[in-house]
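#struct-help
A.M.: can someone run this one for me? Single chain, 111 residues.
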Amino acid sequence: MADKRLLENAQQVKIIEEQIEYTHRLLENKRILVGRWQNDVMQKVHKEDLLVLEQENLDMERKMVDWCKENQRLLGIFQAMKDREVEMIFAAERCLQRNRRARVCALSGIR
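D.P.: on it. Structure tokens below:
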């Protein structure tokens, strides 16, 4: 009985060893395929394209920062123009009132 058990265990060990060897061969083949893919011309072209796109993104980011700065500068100018517009409206209104008073005084002969 013990000999039969030892024989079964030996057969199972042999099967497991074959599976381990198969797994090692499979992994080595996968490593070779991955290595070829990583060093493939298409992969290098893809990497170069990614680098170009990354550079374009950095350029666009710089442009956006510049545009934001310019927009802030223009916003400041616009705010100043709005303030001046309000001042001009009040100044024009004061001039209009002075002209009306001057006409009334001129018509009535009062100085």
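A.M.: thanks! The chain has two helices and no strands.
D.P.: also worth noting: The CA atoms of residues 29 and 35 lie 10 Å apart.
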